[in-house]
Amino acid sequence: MEMKSKKISLGISVLLTLTGIVILFIGAYFLIQSLREYHYQSSFEKKYEFIPIKNDHHVQVFHGVKINTFLKEENRNNLNSTIILEIKDEIEAEIKASPVDTDTDSMKAYSDVIQYKHMVNRETNEETFIIAMQTTPAGKRVDTKQYRTYSINENGVITKSEFTIGHQSKAETQWIRGISKQKHGYYTDLPYQDGAWTSLLLLIGFGLLSLFSGIKLGQNAFNRYSGAAV
Questions:
Q1: Which residues pair with 152 in a beta bridge?
Q2: Which of the listed residues 64, 106, 133, 136 has the most CB atoms within 10 Å of its CB?
Q3: How far is 156 from 95, CA to CA, in rounded Å?
Q4: Exposed, middle or buried by CB within 10 Å (0-12, 13-18, 19+), for 2?
């Protein structure tokens, strides 16, 4: 009976120890990713700067390229809206969205779906105008939201890209921030989530507690077994 009790104690010890190790590996992974995220963000901010658009109007002209965002007329009074993006007077996108407040000419009316951003390379002073949007239709449930960006350089060259979270470049990570009030990271979203660090510390603490409890229980069981054997 005593031998069975000791075997159970050793089994629980092994389980607690392994659980602690697994939890600590998970905690260490997110901690490392968070440190990488901080380093990446710091490096980006040293090299690039987003400057406020002087006239936050839905019509912009950047080095000869005209950009216009507006609401489809027949959708103005509907529960759902269709946002139109034109570049060089050509329709580039039609985005199904929630009702839009069109009482203002500011891009703030569309900021949950589409945003303009003006970026400057601090090292070269080269400017880039970015149009970033979420193309997933409002009300449609998808596992991963879809995004599209247009970047316009000083020569008027337009580069288009489409991607989902986890498949974006480092620059695209910055461009889509703020759309739908979200702030994504390139390596992890953890540093930008409320209470994330508290949860991570609790996770690591629980892992350490489980690990040391398992080791201690195993030592006690082994000592009792050794004493009984003698």
A1: 129, 158
A2: 133
A3: 24
A4: exposed
pLDDT for 229 beyond 50: no
Write down the pTM of the prediction. Answer: 0.79
Given pLDDT bands bounded at 50, 70 and 90, which one contains residue 186?
very high
> Average pLDDT in the 186-190 region?
92
What's the average model confidence in pLDDT over 49-62? 90
How many residues can be counted in the chain? 230
Q: Contact at 8 Å (CB) between 64 and 156?
A: yes
**Tokens encoding 30:** 């997110």
DSSP state letters, 133-176: EE-SPTT---SS-EEEEEEE-TT--EEEEEEETTS--HHHHHHT
What distance in Å separates the CA atoms of residue 20 and residue 132, rounded to the nearest whole number?
43
Check: CB of residue 70 under 8 Å from CB of residue 84.
yes
